[in-house]
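Work Package 4 report. The design task specified in the project plan requires that, given a folded chain encoded as structure tokens, an amino acid be chosen for each position. We show below one input record used in the internal validation round.
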């Protein structure tokens, strides 16, 4: 169809996410091009996008810039504008200073600010309008994550004919916490615009259903909510990793050589590894505290064991993230200053992002992978580590508060708030015999290989496409 002179491509399959699945790269000669963003979500959805001639709606990453739709990597992409002020209020503000901490057990205090809320509504409306414009009759529209919780309802008002799925990548909080939110009813009604609301864990789906009953007085049966003469299904779909991609990576000779090189560079010490966005939900301070105390107690000696902590820069304009960075960097300095020796720091802290091959080499080099979030929707790092260890070696220390703990039962599970328990578990994992390592790794690998990210996308879409009449 022709609208306002520009051709609108209508799609049977539409993905709506805060970000487009591509990043702009500028070459040395100044020419700009697009490159597919790394990460499981994009690689899971890209094949579906291609086979269904799908459209992806999202922000392209540059404030204030208006871009026309374009095709890249076999996908039709529709950029949605965000002003600099909206990035500050909607993205850094309501999404990452309000919803993110509220949904992660209020580890940091959520900010409740009306101007942020207004921007959240405005930007969600813009995404809903973009989706309404490109969706074909009866299309499938799949909305991603906490930045866009109002879109399901807004889109349904514009386009009652389309089938709407929503997936929340982060935890959904218990009623007692969600209740704090001044706009709690609006968020819940926003989500109820979907036909299917997907969560990482069954417990999150239950929290949602319980809230619908208590806050909106909605009728429900198990995990089906009756709302507006419709059935809204709440279900769990634990997300996973691109096992195929990771296996190909670790099969590359240069990745295996790089892993050897890392081990040599670290003086053949036992390697503990942490890989996280620098985020207060990840429990980085707790794991470093526990590790440092193992030196204090004489259980570890400098040169014998090292901790490699990769911390990806994240949300650097949000105050809590600036505070966290200062705190972690001070802690690293203190522990190295106290326990390190010349030529033998006990922590290697790297505040940077790596490509997939370097990450895979680090996973291969690590003896003990340490994943200790205080709360995490899933945690893909834990699953990536398992997917990479086709040598059946290495141990995984995993927080009970990561969604992944429900599947990776053979990890050494810990409560990261319990520093003594964490210390004990680090030592147990370190001292596990090769046979025991292999036994645990085999069981965890079975789970991850059978439940990879393709299956996640497939299961969600199969459920969404199932007929469900009232
Ligand atoms: P995140 O909070 O970002 O994801 P996680 O699931 O661990 O957490 O995913 C992080 C991804 O970034 C991994 O694929 C990892 O390899 C990559 N990464 C981390 N540090 C990196 C670095 N220095 N360089 C390059 N890559 C790096 C949110 C939720 C999670 C949920 C996912 C998916 O918070 O709970 O598992 O979405 O739904």
């Amino acid at each position: 169809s022709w609208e306002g002179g520009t051709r609108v491509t209508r799609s049977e399959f539409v993905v709506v996410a805060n970000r487009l699945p591509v990043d702009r790269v500028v070459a040395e000669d100044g020419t700009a091009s697009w490159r597919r963003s790394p990460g499981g979500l994009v690689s899971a959805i890209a094949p579906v996008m291609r086979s269904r001639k799908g459209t992806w709606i999202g922000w392209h990453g540059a404030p204030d810039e208006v871009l026309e739709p374009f095709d890249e990597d076999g996908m039709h992409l529709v950029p949605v504008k965000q002003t600099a002020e909206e990035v500050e209020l909607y993205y850094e503000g309501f999404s990452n200073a309000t919803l993110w901490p509220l949904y992660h057990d209020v580890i940091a205090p959520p900010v409740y600010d009306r101007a942020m809320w207004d921007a959240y509504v405005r930007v969600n409306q813009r995404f809903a309008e973009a989706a309404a414009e490109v969706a074909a009759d009866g299309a499938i529209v799949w909305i991603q994550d906490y930045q866009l919780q109002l879109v399901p309802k807004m889109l349904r008002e514009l386009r009652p004919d389309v089938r709407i799925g929503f997936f929340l990548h982060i935890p959904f909080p218990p009623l007692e916490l969600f209740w704090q939110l001044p706009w709690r009813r609006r968020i819940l009604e926003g989500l109820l615009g979907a036909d299917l609301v997907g969560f990482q864990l069954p417990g999150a789906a239950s929290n949602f259903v319980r809230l619908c009953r208590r806050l909106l007085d909605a009728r429900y049966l198990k995990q089906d909510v009756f709302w507006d003469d419709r059935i809204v299904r709440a279900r769990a779909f634990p997300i996973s990793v691109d096992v195929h991609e990771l296996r190909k990576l670790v099969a590359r000779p240069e990745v295996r050589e790089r892993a050897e090189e890392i081990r040599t560079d670290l003086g053949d010490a036992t390697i503990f590894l942490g890989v996280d966005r620098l985020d207060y939900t990840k429990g980085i301070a707790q794991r470093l505290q526990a590790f440092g105390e193992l030196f204090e107690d004489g259980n570890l000696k400098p040169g014998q064991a090292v901790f490699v902590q990769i911390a990806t820069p994240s949300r650097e304009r949000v105050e809590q993230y600036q505070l966290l960075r200062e705190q972690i960097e001070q802690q690293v300095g203190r522990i190295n200053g106290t326990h390190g020796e010349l030529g033998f720091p006990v922590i290697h802290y790297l505040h940077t992002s790596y490509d997939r091959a370097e990450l895979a080499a680090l996973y291969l080099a690590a003896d003990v992978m340490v994943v200790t979030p205080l709360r995490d929707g899933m945690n893909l790092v834990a699953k990536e580590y398992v997917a990479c260890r086709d040598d059946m070696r290495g141990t995984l220390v995993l927080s009970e508060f990561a969604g992944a703990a429900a599947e990776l039962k053979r990890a050494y599970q810990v409560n990261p708030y319990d520093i003594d328990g964490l210390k004990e578990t680090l030592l147990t994992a370190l001292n596990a015999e090769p046979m025991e390592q292999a036994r645990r790794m085999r069981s965890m690998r079975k789970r991850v290989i059978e439940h990879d990210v393709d299956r996640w996308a497939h299961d969600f879409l199969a459920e969404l496409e199932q007929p469900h009449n009232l």
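Residues 39, 169-170, 239, 275, 277, 310, 312, 353-354, 359, 376-381, 384 surround adenosine-5'-diphosphate-glucose (CB under 6 Å). Validation will be extended to a larger panel in the next phase.
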